[in-house]
Amino acid sequence: MQYQNILTTCIYCGAGCGLYLQVLDGEIVGVLPAKEHPVSQGKLCIKGWNAASFVYHPDRLKTPLIRRGATSPLLAGGTEGGFEEATWDDALSLVAERLGTIKTESGPNSIGFLASAKCTNEENYLLQKFARAAIGTNNVDHCARL
Length: 146
Prior knowledge:
The chain is α+β, with helices and mostly antiparallel strands. The protein has three domains: 3-49, ADC-like domains (N-terminal domain of TfIIb, Single Sheet), CATH 2.20.25.90; 64-106, no CATH class; 111-146, no CATH class. It has three helices and seven strands; from the N terminus they run E-E-E-H-E-E-H-E-H-E. A three-stranded antiparallel β-sheet has the order 1-2-3, with no helix packed on it. A two-stranded antiparallel ribbon has the order 4-5. The longest helix is centred in the middle third of the chain and has 19 residues, at 88-106. The radius of gyration is 19 Å and the shape is flat. The termini are far apart.
């Protein structure tokens, strides 16, 4: 048996609490707070204690899906309205292509971005920077402001 404690950042809010994933033979078996972490200082909220509970859920998506079909505004062909597994390169290329088309046809302010409290502050900063610098819109919102 191989046991590891892997230091990581909690995914449930932007506070950035530190926790250890307890890994036994390559599988997450538990969570421990990081005592020396400057943010959480050895404490975790209930979400942090359960931060790994979604990893092995049977409904979790593990690969990008692309909707293909005649009813899809994204692509024609494939199964009517169904999703097909895609590579990350294909999925990201499709998103980039569609965002470029929408920006050209309808203008940058026709696109909006919604940031997430489950991302770190740095990830949310990158999203708003992408929205403003690459797309050219200030239409950025965040679910935590409600």
